[in-house]
Amino acid sequence: MNEWEIVIGLEVHVQLNTKSKIFSPTATTYGAPANTQASAVDLALPGVLPVINREAVVKAICFGMAVGGTIEPHSIFARKNYFYPDLPKGYQISQFELPIVSGGSIRFEVGDTHHDIRLVRAHLEEDAGKSVHDAFGRLSGIDLNRAGTPLLEVVTEPDMRSPAEAVAYLRTLHTLVRYLDICDGNLQEGSFRCDANVSIRPHGQTTLGTRTELKNINSFRFVEQALDYEIDRQIAVVENGGAIAQETRLYDADQGNTRPMRSKEEAHDYRYFPDPDLPPLLIGDDLLEEARAALPELPDNRQARFVSEYGLTVAESRQLTRDRDLADFFESAVVAAAGDASGVANWMGGEMAAALNREQCSLEDVPITPAMLGELVVLINNGTISGRMAKTVFDALWQGNGSAQEIVDLRGLTQISDADSLEKIVQAVLKQCPSQAAQYQAGETKVLGFLVGQVMKMTEGKANPQKVNEIFKRHLDG
Amino acid sequence: MASREADDASLPQSDCYVGPTHVYYNLGPRVFWFFSPVPISKDDVERVAHLARIGIDSTEIDAYTADLDRILDLVEQMNEISTQGIEPLAHPQDMQLRLREDTVTESDQRTLFQSIAPQTDQGHYLVPKVIE
Amino acid sequence: MPHRQSLSTLGQMLRRREIGSEELVHHFADRINKQQDLNAFITVDTDYALQQARAADQLLAGGNPPPLAGLPIAHKDIFCTQGMLTTCGSKMLGNFLSPYDATVVRRLKDAGAVTLGKTNMDEFAMGSSNETSHFGPVHNPWNRDRVPGGSSGGSAAAVAARLVSAATGTDTGGSIRQPASFCGLTGLKPTYGRVSRYGMVAYASSLDQGGPITQTAEDAALLLQTMAGFDARDSTSLDAPVPDYAASLKQNIEGLRIGLVSEFFDPSLDPEINAHVREALGELEKLGAKLIDVSLPNSAAGIPCYYVIAPAEASSNLSRFDGVRYGHRSESYADLQALYENTRAEGFGAEVKRRILVGTYALSAGYYEAYYLKAQQIRRRIADDFSQALTECDVLVGPTTPTTAFLLGEKTTDPVSMYLDDIFTITVNLAGLPALSLPVGFDPSGLPIGMQVIGNYLDEGTLLAIGHHFQEVTDWHLHAPGEVA
């Protein structure tokens, strides 16, 4: 295995989260009944014409700026001609010779190693529809709702050397497009789809080996599995004296293998030419300014700022900025927590991360808001509730049982800190447990924990443990 | 469709036939193309017909080959004009793209659109099995 | 008789309530019915027309009617019309009921025009004689053994025979001007982008342009006023103000510089055509215009260049006809490939297939630079020639066609000979300029001769002014075929 160097390049189709399609004013909502979001233009009725969506262009420019690419002042839409039932015009409007974004790079770390993956280009194009294979007997059903949804195809140089690196690249790109708010990042719904070009070569060889293209791999886990399988397959072929065929292969998640795609067997001749229905896209200062204004703080900058501004550790900061929603949540919660960043970070990195992980959901799926978490931290800091009670409150917040204060009020969870009340309870415990009191006074101070525990038991955990401690000590240390 | 012989007889014949296939030489940064006198073949026509998904049966292929040959012959008169350094013109008046605001104005018209479709079921257009 | 009147005159008569729209529809429907042998129409829907006419009559009675209220017109069957078949002259769309109206159709409808029917045409506008139509050839009303020209042959024949007062057409390489010339009519191809292409079944998208085919320049102005204008649904539509063309008609042409294109007056030009065009130029000189000689040196490359660009764009535009969502679908297929291949083999006629094959070939790997890119470079040179010439003069003139209407079947065995007929019109589309064809006389066998006037971008007004002033001092446009009584 070690004598082979692995070479991977990725093409990611990022679905842009515009309201309407790239060339028609039709909705792009996911999951609508078949063909109810397919207008005359999307169906390629005779005589219809494309008109480009400004927002798709702005989002592509934002991406180009974020990766440090060149925003081409003059780019061209071209027709890619081929017949397929999910492609109603018999051609896909894409960009070929002159894409909207050239160059740029994506940086990330795997362990301690820094990687800088060069991008070849990012271009705008329209998505195809979907074929449904199982519901119509010997026939296939065609749903064109997705046809015309804007895509930004992001193409890398063959710069990755392992499946782990490829996955790290994808995660970084995924974070970035969500940060930029140009894509909802939903892998299940196909908003972020990956094709991989894979080849192997002996270490030290500079020319590339024959590559295969793996199509439509729709989860980070499958990317790694598909690449692992394909690399093993290629090595086995070559080591058995065979040659790799340049072909397109489909990853089968159920079988855990890849197989050649029959529809791609014949050599394609896409006959690209500039779309005569769409004059050149000229990008001037107005569009660049619009995109710049829409550009949020990027993940790397935000991570550094979290360290300097909030005093977080690099690890905490990295965890909190890996997702824009998470980082936004954090910053709002810190405001609500009267500036206690480390308190908020502890909760987000602890209880909240654990809960999100346990239930495999994202922030938008849970009822807890930044204001709620901030309030919880405030209630702890001002002594209203104990850390232990806070965990109970957090669970209730997670369940959607109201704000922190409401939960505290409703359950009577307010900590008993009032000295007179506590004094009475402490005295009662001392009366009940004379032998433990004696033990303490004999120097076995660890028994204090038991005594405090008795108080907590009697108060159903509401007593302020620090205060109880102090009162016991005053009585016993006397 | 007339036979190739009949068609040829009606046309003036040039001494040097310039066909569509060509050799090209790489002369520095640009690639220059030169035509070589090879006429379009039946294989070319079959390949192109397949790309265009037009079924052509064996009885028609000669006639199409002859017609295409003559059309390409006409087209190659382009080579009488020098185009070195000329920027290609794709749109009259060098237009530029106009951008549309991102709003949804289309509503569902599936029933109307599918009333003219050859075969549909449950809102889907039906075709013979698609093999991936 | 109403059919002997121009569209503009009928409009005045309707406004003065001297005649009703319903009456006009009956009258023209009757004429269409009696001259079915011309085969000018693919679809006629009298009931639908009558319905529109009655609505128009109400508008006319109510006062302040829209500009074209009650005027019967016909559309070339390339324009999508809701509720009436849109076949594009093809078996492929033989059953196609468009779910929407083309922008041109909607605008004319909104202006009160009454659609009588849809006119015959070369299949997908590919032809210069109207003989490639799936619905059979159209006959020239001046001589039924002859072609009416194409591809808007049905529109031209219908207007010439006065089966309707005016019709829409489209022009990709001469398809309005050449049939107008063959049929003794006024035909205007506007500037590319002046008239919306939305809903016009695409042949060659960078060349196609809709326009009117009429009896007079005044009628052309009247229709263009409604047809022209920005359409947000067409990315190539020009966002420029539409002038008042009725006012343009009266524009002074004194001192106007008219350029005689030397390449169009080649010594081999038919002497009859040459004589009549020069005679017409003499009339314009009398009206104060100045004649100067200009050159369009790359004109000869127009046809080869066009026969790369148009088929290439067409090969892609016509890929949508696959038998899946609308139109013809073969009944015999074992799999998806066969469905495509059989549907398209059955649905398209020979000329359409030829052009798809040529276009596919020109775009295919290894040939793109030699054909498509080269053609686009030549296109730039041709457009530059026009720009240069139009700095020396205001308009350019020449004959519209090298011959008068040829015999049916005369050029069908040789597609290339048919292509050569568009030699004077084709370069105008490559440059995207507006051009007008005017009737300027008849050859010894009584067939109409046309003169083409080419203007600068968006300067349709000057073309219409020239046409109108010329028609005020001549009567060629008033001649009608013998059958018109």
Summarize the structure.
Chain A is of the alpha+beta class and 478 residues long. Chain A has helices spanning 54-66, 163-179, 220-239, 285-294, 299-310, 314-321, 324-336, 341-359, 370-381, 387-399, 404-410, 419-432, 434-441, 448-458, 465-477, and strands at residues 4-15, 70-71, 74-75, 78-81, 91-94, 101-102, 105-110, 113-126, 130-136, 139-143, 150-156, 192-202, 212-217, 248-252, 257-260, 273-274, 281-282.
CATH topology descriptor of the domain at 2-256 and 462-478 in chain C: Amidase signature (AS) enzymes
Q: What would CATH call the homologous superfamily of the domain at 2-256 and 462-478 in chain C?
A: Amidase signature (AS) domain
The largest contact between protein chains, plus residue counts on each side, is: B-C, 65 and 76 residues
Main pleated sheet of chain B = 2 strands, antiparallel
The oligomerization state is heterotrimer
How does the overall form of chain B come out from the CA principal axes?
A: flat
CATH architecture annotation of the domain at 2-256 and 462-478 in chain C: Alpha-Beta Complex
Question: Strands of the biggest beta sheet of chain C: in what spatial order?
Answer: 4-6-5-10-11-9-7-8
Rg of chain B to the nearest angstrom?
23 Å
Per-chain topology:
The complex is a heterotrimer of chains A (478), B (132) and C (485).
Chain A: E1 4-15, H1 54-66, E2 70-71, E3 74-75, E4 78-81, E5 91-94, E6 101-102, E7 105-110, E8 113-126, E9 130-136, E10 139-143, E11 150-156, H2 163-179, E12 192-202, E13 212-217, H3 220-239, E14 248-252, E15 257-260, E16 273-274, E17 281-282, H4 285-294, H5 299-310, H6 314-321, H7 324-336, H8 341-359, H9 370-381, H10 387-399, H11 404-410, H12 419-432, H13 434-441, H14 448-458, H15 465-477
Parallel strand pairs in A: 13-14
Antiparallel strand pairs in A: 1-11, 1-12, 2-6, 3-17, 4-5, 4-16, 6-8, 7-8, 8-11, 9-10, 12-13, 14-15
Chain B: H1 4-9, E1 22-27, E2 30-35, H2 42-51, H3 58-75, H4 110-114, E3 120-121, E4 124-128
Antiparallel strand pairs in B: 1-2, 3-4
Helix pairs in contact in B: 2-3
Chain C: H1 7-15, H2 21-34, E1 41-44, H3 46-62, E2 72-76, H4 103-110, E3 114-119, H5 153-160, E4 167-170, H6 177-182, E5 186-189, E6 210-214, H7 217-227, H8 245-249, E7 257-261, H9 271-286, E8 290-294, H10 302-317, H11 336-347, H12 350-363, H13 368-392, E9 395-399, H14 415-419, H15 426-431, E10 435-442, E11 448-454, H16 460-473
Parallel strand pairs in C: 2-3, 7-8, 7-9
Antiparallel strand pairs in C: 1-3, 4-6, 5-6, 5-10, 9-11, 10-11
Helix pairs in contact in C: 2-3, 7-16, 10-12, 10-13
